[in-house]
Amino acid sequence: MKYAFEVDEVPCSQGHDGEVFASFRVNHTGYPGDDEVLELAETKCADLQFGYVLDSWADFGDADIYYFTPDRTTWRRGDRHITCIFGASDPKHPLEGSLRSDTTTLDA
After folding, report:
1. Cα 80 to Cα 107: distance, rounded to the nearest angstrom
2. Is the predicted pLDDT of residue 17 greater than 80, yes or no?
3. How far is it, in rounded angstroms, from Cα 10 to Cα 47?
4. What residues are paired with 83 via a beta bridge?
5. How far apart are alpha carbons 43 and 48 in whole angstroms?
6. Element (H, E) at 34
7. Which residues is 22 bridged to in the sheet?
8. For residue range 50-106, what is the model confidence (pLDDT) as tens digits?
9. Which of 15, 30, 75, 101 has the smallest number of Cβ neighbours within 10 A?
10. For residue range 25-58, what is the model confidence (pLDDT) as tens digits?
């Protein structure tokens, strides 16, 4: 598990390391454990990606799915959210533009 201590917001028009595409709350009363949180993140982020990129034929290019998750320590502080991110597969080649699509950007 890796940790991020700082995240800078930049416009999609600039090169960037990641693009947030979804966030959701974990509805457990107690911390479910690292394995269950990671499994939930993997499953739900994979499902949610097509609500952000409506084109099921889309080529994500050099982007993979990553996520920020609560751990036992942040859970005790009230962190209950998982954030889904399209991230650059290769840090030497940042993402450019947005992967977002909606009905105005799709055609036959």
Report:
1. 38
2. yes
3. 25
4. 23, 68
5. 9
6. helix 34-52
7. 84
8. 888 876 656 667 789 999 999 999 999 999 999 999 998 888 888 888 877 666 655
9. 30
10. 999 999 999 999 999 999 999 999 988 887 665 6
Amino acid identity of residue 103, one-letter, is T
* Secondary structure class of 87 (helix, strand, coil): strand
Q: Write out the two tokens for 63.
A: 């982007």
Residue type, 11: P
Q: How far is CA 76 from CA 5, 10, 31, 70, 71, in A?
A: 17, 30, 8, 9, 9
The rounded distance, in Å, linking the Cα atoms of 82 and 23 is 6
Average pLDDT over residues 4-30: 89
- Integer Cα distance of 59 and 29 in angstroms: 38
Both tokens of 5, joined, read 């201590």
Residue with tokens 């598990």: 1
DSSP-assigned letters across all residues of 35-82: HHHHHHHHHHHHHHHHHHB--TT---TTEEEEEE---HHHHHTT--EE
